[in-house]
Specification:
With 302 residues, the protein is α/β, with parallel strands linked by helices. The chain is built from 13 helices and 6 strands. Strands 3-2-4-1-5-6 form a 6-stranded parallel β-sheet, with helices on both faces. Helix 1 packs parallel to helix 13 and helix 5 packs across helix 6.
């Protein structure tokens, strides 16, 4: 019997975790987390990480495995997941991958182009330029080194801009010339389901989840890691707004409303990204499990 990876993805707040756990219980299989921020320890409220009860309901991998100071990437995730899967296939024919980090999902399903490792010297030089000259200076450098890549990214996304400059400096060629976009062949079946609901309902769920995060102690969680605010692992919605409160640049009410807005914007970006993928089947949360089981049956008959 061929092995099958079932991907449960979609916008933030749509209900991916609950769906993945129920499906994992039916199939008696494990869940691979594909959320780039839930990889880190210490910020479970901000990242809406699976609760202890949810972790006990189905075995999860790649949840809270890294310290905030550690770097991690989609390429490393691809390598780590592919190394883990053989042991999971020995236990059964199915594995579920759940998460909304677009690059992480693509890394496992399609592969990441081989890029040079960034030396500590190059990383430090880019970091120093960011601190001394600001993000705009790095944007200008990236536009000179690789105008094609610079035109495709958000110039306010510090991590993307820095990463592009690092690759260009390390490789000595434009980053865009190293990105082939060619999908790698996998030796297992892949079923991709994206959950979605009506836009107004999704946004309402997102707003309510932010309120629950505040009630659960998000401000205290952010305060505990405030001294690490320069780290890329904390460059995320929720932490940025809380840090603005602590810095005195935003009042609490405005910060909470901004957090809701920024989360809604991120959800729209996720939807746009996944709609480009013709291999995805779009379903409501209620349709997800029947659809997955139906597709498994189709795979078995092939």
């Amino acid at each position: 019997m061929e092995k099958t990876l079932i991907v449960i993805t979609g916008p933030t707040g749509v209900g991916k975790t609950a769906t993945a756990i129920e499906l994992a219980q039916r199939l008696h299989c494990d869940i691979i987390n594909a959320d780039s921020r839930q990889i880190y320890r210490g910020i479970p409220i901000c990242t809406a990480a699976p609760t202890p009860e949810e972790l006990a309901a189905a075995r999860h991998h790649f949840v809270a495995i890294k310290d905030l100071e550690e770097s991690y990437s989609a390429a490393q995730f691809e390598s780590d997941v592919l190394a883990l899967l053989p042991s999971l296939w020995q236990q059964g024919d199915y594995v579920i991958m759940c998460g909304g980090s677009m690059l992480y999902v693509d890394a496992v399903c399609r592969g990441i182009d081989q890029l040079p490792d960034i030396s500590p010297e190059v990383r430090m030089s880019v970091k120093t330029k960011l601190q001394q000259e600001g993000l705009e200076s790095l944007v200008q450098e990236l536009e000179q080194l690789d105008p094609q890549y610079a035109a495709t990214i958000d110039h306010k996304n510090t991590s993307r801009v820095c990463h592009g400059v690092e690759i260009c400096r390390q490789a000595g060629v434009p980053y865009s010339t190293l990105r082939t976009g060619t999908a790698k062949q996998r030796d297992f079946n892949i079923i991709k389901l994206a959950l979605n609901i009506e836009r107004d309902q999704l946004f309402s769920r997102i707003n309510a989840r932010v309120d629950r995060m505040i009630e659960a102690g998000l401000e205290q969680e952010a305060r505990a890691v405030y001294h690490l605010r320069h780290l890329n692992s904390l460059n995320t919605v929720g932490m940025k707004e809380m840090f603005a409160i602590f810095d005195g640049t935003m009042d609490r009410t405005t910060a909470i409303q901004r957090m809701k807005k920024n989360t809604r914007v991120y959800a729209k970006k996720q939807l746009t990204w996944y709609r480009r993928d013709p291999s995805i089947t779009w379903v409501t949360p209620d349709q997800a499990i029947p659809t997955a089981l139906c597709k498994i049956g189709t795979v078995l008959l092939m």
